[in-house]
Design goal:
The chain is of the alpha+beta class. Helices cover about 35% and strands about 15% of the residues. The radius of gyration is 12 Å and the shape is globular. InterPro entries: P-loop_NTPase, Type_1_exporter.
Length: about 60
């Protein structure tokens, strides 16, 4: 359901900054810029594909979902 909402909103959100806090990574898979936080600090950033390749923390979270 969350994925459908985000996809429907994408057209309205062009050229705007939107902050989405998600616990399910499948919800944000198509987001342009994803920030990975740990203990309140940004530890990685990128899109889904790049984070899966380069971020051990993101990869761990994604595959444990």
């Amino acid at each position: 359901m969350c994925v459908k909402i985000i996809k429907n909103l994408k057209g309205y959100l062009n050229n705007k900054i939107v902050v989405i806090i998600a616990h399910r990574l499948s919800t944000i898979r198509d987001i342009d810029n994803i920030y990975v936080l740990n203990d309140g600090k940004v530890i990685d950033k990128g899109n889904h594909k790049n984070l899966l390749r380069h971020s051990d923390q993101y990869k761990k979270l994604y595959y444990n979902e």
